Amino acid sequence: MALGALLDAGADEGELRAALGHLGLEGWSLSTSKVLRGGIEATRVEVRVEEGGRARTLRDVLEILSSAGLPERALARATSAFSRIAEVEGRIHGLDPAEVHFHELGGHDTIVDVAGTAICLELLGVDLVAASPVATGTGTVEGGHGLLPNPSPAVLGLLSGAPLYGRDVAVELTTPTGAAILAGSGARFGPLPAMVPVATGYGAGSREIEGLPNCLQVVVGDAATPWADPGRVSGQPLALVEANVDDATGEEIADAIALLLDAGALDAWSAPVVMKKGRPGQVVSALAEVARLEEVRACLLASTGSLGARSQLVDRYAVERRIETVELDGVPLRLKVAQGWVKVEHDDAAAYGLSHGLPLREVRRRAIEAWRAGSAGA
Q: Quick one: which of 40, 147, 167, 210 has the fewest CB in 10 Å?
């Protein structure tokens, strides 16, 4: 239903099929059709498979995803979804997540659903995923271990901390796959965020449900604030993750910042503060794409030893810039160029200075002069 809604909202089906073709899976097919659900025209997506119930581990699935050449953010979202499934299934069955064998959740259809949704989010340029409170049904559902209560333990585990509500309908309104997609996308929950809608899509469920339109609605829009002027420029929605630390050395703080950047943070830093009882401490902060919030938050806790972290959504307004290259003695050095300024990449300048016995300031001066001379002659 998520895949159908995103295609209905304008994600290019040809580009989706091309990207899914790189997963290296055989014996599956994807079909789309227009159907009515509760009087609403929606896109129905069906993934048919020929495989016979193969159980994959998390490592198996991650290898399939990592070898597919997916866009970085799409890979992060799909990887996060399956990692969360393994974590929850491990907790339910008392296993290490690495030892969990996905049954129906490791099949071709689930991999195509999760990866396909992540790909479509990227095709639509979605930075932030938000969802209304999640509906669940009643009764029981069939799982790999027999009959389970509805909502299933996997759904409840994956949506821990999210607002849920029940409908008196004996149907599995939210599946583990759907819950994993929300969890892996770093979704926040609540009313429709302030936005300027640009597209709407509807993904159809497999059947009609009496009194309820069995479809998923997706609204794609540009972020805005309720008081914004129509011409206001919107920033890029990012997650700011922070922890207060009062028992780490300077070297440990520097190591934590490096690990946060390796974990996918777009930027990381620390600032000195005075904490309770007059203790000196550091606020360690990281800025990350919303899809990478869980990874970056876990890294922050592990690398600092902090017992807690906080996060909030922020807007980043980045100045448009480009990367250019100049050569000094045949050695290329990269520069960031924006309106009104130019800056030499530190690592390139430091390496050149070390090999030529020059201080950084002299390398920067020569590189900028070379860039200006080249720009003037262009």
A: 210
The pLDDT tens digits for 269-281 are 999 999 988 999 9
| pLDDT of the residue at 240 | 93
| pLDDT tens-place string over residues 79-138 | 999 999 888 888 888 888 877 777 656 678 889 999 999 999 999 999 889 999 999 999
pTM for the whole thing? Answer: 0.65
Nearest one of 205, 194, 155 to 178, comparing CA atoms: 155
Find the DSSP H helices in 171-307. Answer: 176-184, 250-262, 293-304
- What tokens were used for 147? 């009959």
CATH 3.30.70.1380 assigned to domain 236-316? The reply is: yes
Structural domain boundaries of the chain?
2-223, 236-316, 321-377
